[in-house]
Amino acid sequence: MRRFVEGVDRSQTTLFPESLDDWVDENNPVRVIDAFVEALDLRALGFDGVVPEATGRPSYHPAVLLKLYIYGYLNRVQSSRRLEREAGRNVE
């Protein structure tokens, strides 16, 4: 069992369209953000929490939070509350 809060699998089939990846354009910058963060070695860069604790509530993986932060920076969303709303309404 993983000790991080898991998001929805983007390749999971849904009613409209077949998968969530179909909603994101091939040239969308979020694909670059995703590939960039996945290529990073977060532990070597000094990120805390890359290895989850064995007890307590599962946390969000630092890579997911970094992707969200970079998305907000690129789209000039500075408030964490605005970023939360944006992530809830915007599929990308």
Query: End-to-end distance, in Å?
Result: 27 Å
- Average pLDDT, rounded to a whole number, is 82
Instruction: Give the number of DSSP strands.
Output: 0
Give the % helix: 25-40%
Q: What characterizes the major β-sheet? A: none
**What structural class do the secondary elements suggest?**
mainly alpha
Fraction of residues in β-strands: under 5%
Unreliable stretches (pLDDT < 50, length at least 5) are none
- The H-and-E topology, N to C, reads as HHH
Summed up, the helix count is 3
Architecture overview:
With 92 residues, this protein is mainly α. It has a domain at 29-89. Helices cover 37% and strands 0% of the residues. The chain has three helices and no strands. It has helices at residues 29-39, 62-74, 80-89. Helix 1 (29-39) runs antiparallel to helix 2. The mean pLDDT is 82.
Short précis:
Helix content is 37%, strand content 0%.
Label this structure with key terms.
92 residues, 0% strand, mainly alpha, globular
Secondary-structure map:
Elements (H helix, E strand, L loop, with lengths): L28 H11 L22 H13 L5 H10 L3
